[in-house]
């Protein structure tokens, strides 16, 4: 199954989240039967990220957005577990600091964009500025409503300069969220994750749904597509996200850079060193 095709939101289409089944799990019944495929994509992610780092020509920006407990942290963990941390950066965007608020909303984002050869993962992103900001009227509508175009322009500029972008919305339903809140309560090791805002934000579910539908519909572009990932099953979410990222990296047709030395000369030096060592 080609999940890039299946879950990509085509430019100009109108997203209705209620029409997308968050429990979808494709051709696999459970995690055990998906294990082989999960491992295959993990290996591909490993090899392709190594190649991108060596090539040092372009970068990849992965954005994760979702409601609380939908699995942003788990996805970061899964995807990056296959990659060499040397070429990866993760940024979590929280409530803006006073300094961040004193600048325009893209200021903090720009500084976190990946340099050539690197993968950056954004756990939340500038989309919060048309999500939580819209739902809670943190700025007037005339301000946030202009941001969709601004975001498209910003992302296009990054892409034109060698940063590839993929954006994931992790789609769960309200019952699954409640189930995960319960797991957090039942497991003392997860108590630190619980916040009051989990429960206050849950009351705005429909407002968030509308805000997400708008953001995804207006900002899924050919150059920076949104993917809506059914995420009630964590293993399926990991499978789909890792396949899509691996396919993206694969599409770059990357090559290792040519050696900076003359390999024939280096071989002679190596053999001379071996001889010297045996003496
Ligand atoms: P968490 O990801 O659970 O650590 O929570 C981060 C919090 O920061 C969430 O409640 C977000 O809604 C909030 N946040 C992130 N970006 C913004 C923003 N631009 N404006 C206001 N709140 C934000
Ligand atoms: Mg949270």
What does the main sheet amount to? 5 strands, parallel
Give the SSE order as H and E letters: HHEHEHHEHHHEHHHEHH
Structural class determined from secondary elements: alpha/beta
Instruction: Give the neighbour order of strands across the main sheet.
Output: 2-3-1-4-5
Q: Which cofactor or ligand species appear?
A: adenosine monophosphate, magnesium ion
Count the E strands: 5
Unreliable parts: none
Helix content range of the residues, please?
40-55%
Radius of gyration, Cα only, in angstroms? 21 Å
* Approximate strand percentage: 5-15%
Count up the helices.
13
| Cα distance spanning the termini | 59 Å
**Mean pLDDT, nearest integer?**
97
Shape: globular
Describe the model:
The structure is a single chain. The chain is α/β, with parallel strands linked by helices and 279 residues long. The chain has helices at residues 3-7, 31-55, 72-81, 98-101, 107-112, 132-135, 141-144, 147-160, 174-186, 196-202, 205-219, 234-250, 263-278; strands at residues 59-65, 88-92, 119-123, 163-171, 226-230. The protein has a five-stranded parallel sheet, sandwiched between helices. Helix 2 (31-55) runs parallel beside helix 12 (234-250) and helix 3 crosses helix 12. The protein is globular. The model has no long low-confidence stretch (mean pLDDT 97). Bound molecules: adenosine monophosphate and magnesium ion (MG). Adenosine monophosphate binds next to helix 6. The site of adenosine monophosphate (AMP) has 11 residues, from helix 6.
């Amino acid at each position: 199954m080609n999940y890039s095709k299946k879950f990509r939101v085509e430019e100009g289409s109108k997203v209705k989240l209620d029409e997308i089944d968050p429990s979808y799990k494709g051709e696999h019944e459970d995690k055990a039967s998906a294990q082989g495929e999960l491992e295959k994509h993990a290996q591909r992610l490993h090899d392709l990220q190594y190649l991108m780092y060596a090539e040092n020509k372009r970068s990849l920006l992965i954005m994760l957005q979702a409601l609380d407990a939908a699995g942003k942290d788990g996805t970061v963990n899964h995807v990056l577990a296959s990659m060499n941390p040397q070429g990866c950066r993760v940024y979590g965007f929280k409530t803006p600091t006073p300094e961040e608020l004193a600048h325009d909303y893209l200021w903090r984002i720009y500084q976190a964009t990946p340099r050539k050869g690197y993968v950056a993962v954004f756990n939340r992103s500038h989309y919060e500025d048309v999500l939580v900001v819209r739902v809670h009227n943190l700025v007037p509508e005339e301000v946030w409503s202009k941001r969709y175009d601004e975001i498209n322009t910003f992302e296009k500029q990054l892409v034109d300069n060698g940063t590839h972008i993929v954006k994931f919305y992790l789609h769960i339903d309200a019952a699954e969220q409640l189930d995960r809140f319960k797991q957090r309560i039942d497991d003392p090791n997860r108590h630190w994750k619980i916040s009051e805002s989990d429960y206050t934000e849950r009351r705005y579910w429909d407002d968030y749904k509308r805000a997400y539908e708008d953001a995804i519909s207006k900002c899924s572009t050919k150059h920076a597509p949104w993917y809506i990932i059914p995420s009630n099953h964590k293993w399926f979410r990991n499978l789909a996200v890792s396949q899509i990222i691996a396919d993206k990296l694969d599409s770059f047709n990357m090559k290792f850079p040519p050696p900076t030395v003359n390999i024939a000369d280096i071989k002679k030096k190596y053999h001379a060193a071996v001889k010297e060592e045996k003496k």
